[in-house]
Amino acid sequence: MQVVNIGVLGLGTVGSGVVRLLKDHEHKISSITGRKLVVKTVVVHNLEKKRDIDLTGIKMTDDINELINDNEINIVVEVMGTVATAKKYIELLLRAGKHIITANKDLIATYGSELAELADQNKCDLFYEASVAGGIPILRTIVNSFAADRIIEVKGIVNGTTNYILTKMSQNNMSFTEALKSAQELGFAEPDPTNDIEGIDAAYKMIILTQFAFGINVALDDIEVKGINGIDLEDIKQAKGLGYNIKLLGIAKLVNDRISVAVGPVLVPETQPLSAVQNENNAVLVTGAAVGETMFYGPGAGELPTANSVLSDIIAVTKDIVLETTGNRFNDFSREGKQALPDEVKYPYYISLKVRDRPGQMLKITEVMTELNASFHLIIQSEYDDVNARVVMTTHEMSEQQIKEIIEGIDNLEEIEVIASYRILSE
Ligand SMILES: NC(=O)c1ccc[n+]([C@@H]2O[C@H](COP(=O)([O-])OP(=O)(O)OC[C@H]3O[C@@H](n4cnc5c(N)ncnc54)[C@H](OP(=O)(O)O)[C@@H]3O)[C@@H](O)[C@H]2O)c1
């Protein structure tokens, strides 16, 4: 049987899983592809590090040139992370005619188009199924199974760390700090969790999902990004009392044929399937004009789930090599798209306030709302501390522009402080 040689760049969580699965599933893979897939060389940073994996017959090096200059290597799997270094290496590898598979969402969200162009020029494949929602095969599903449908909305829980934190807060009454610590102890959060808890990791994944679902390129600056950093346990409890779970959602949707992409905490009704997605799991809900609502659920990270997505890319590239059809883009759908305007994206909102407990305060808040033509659905007042009350409101549907002005207006009032304002998802 002919051999396809693979180079692996990075042997951490995902890289180890890739080497392991290629070996464990060797026979099935060769019967599907008609080729024997062999990991020939692995590039790491630290050659001295002990590896808990069988590396018999694999060359270990810390020199990227061992991949670039090896004419026998057909495919390189980049699972080392970083943006600048990974970009530089992938460019060199593409120019050397290597097909690339990567799990690097930061890189693809930022430089995906540029790298896809370079892959085209070199007749190489560039696949990145594992970059969004780890083990859930969502990108190839959108490319293949939604090819003929018109996608209206893609929304979901695409960051396992924040979903774990929010689940622990909701189920175990933990504060944000306690839940983050627990996530770090269990390896669900990095020592520096900034990208996860500030919503940036989810935003990168929404950039890639938006490109696949709508064919539209958006940049990080085009996205309204709110994280869960410091989210108040009282808001989670209050939302629960109203029949909602707070989830960090990415939402990309067409509004009057313009695109709106946002990441932030959202009140999800308990009856909505995303509400039931617990712990570090991910789920993506794709709504098509023809098919309606579909949901894809599974592990968003982890050694073997992520490696499985990488392997599906390896098999896709190998089939392209066999059929001599390499050099086609992962996603061919591309069109011009304008950003939705702030006054056309509408949701009901949840607002919580710390209000000095004295007469006349509600009147001041009502005046701000009335001036901006917005109205409450309900108002609940409870004790905050000895001198302040906690006021929680849900509103009728209002535009992003309106909520921004309302929050500014309320924040300008004396003795009233906005704690949180979150979108509410409809049933
Ligand atoms: N972990 C997940 O569940 C998951 C899920 C989806 C996507 N991803 C993405 O997959 C990628 C890898 O993640 P990971 O969790 O596997 O990372 P990781 O455990 O930190 O492993 C990174 C690997 O890359 C190597 N490396 C780092 N810098 C290098 C350099 N300059 N030259 C050569 N090798 C270098 C490291 O070498 P040493 O071992 O010698 O230090 C290590 O083996 C990232 O882009 C991540 O966002 C991860």
Automatic annotation (TrEMBL):
Q: Which residues form the active site?
A: K205 (proton donor)
Q: Does the keyword Transcription regulation apply?
A: no
Record-annotated ACT domain positions:
350-427
Q: What class of enzyme is it?
A: oxidoreductase
Q: Name one Pfam family in it.
A: Homoserine_dh
Residue sites binding NADP(+) per the record: L9, G10, L11, G12, T13, V14, G15, S16
Q: Which cofactor does it need?
A: a metal cation
Q: Which GO terms describe its molecular function?
A: homoserine dehydrogenase activity; metal ion binding; NADP binding
| EC numbers on record | 1.1.1.3
Q: Which GO terms describe its biological process?
A: methionine biosynthetic process; threonine biosynthetic process
Q: Which PANTHER family match?
A: HOMOSERINE DEHYDROGENASE
Which protein family is it in? Belongs to the homoserine dehydrogenase family.
Q: What is this protein called?
A: Homoserine dehydrogenase
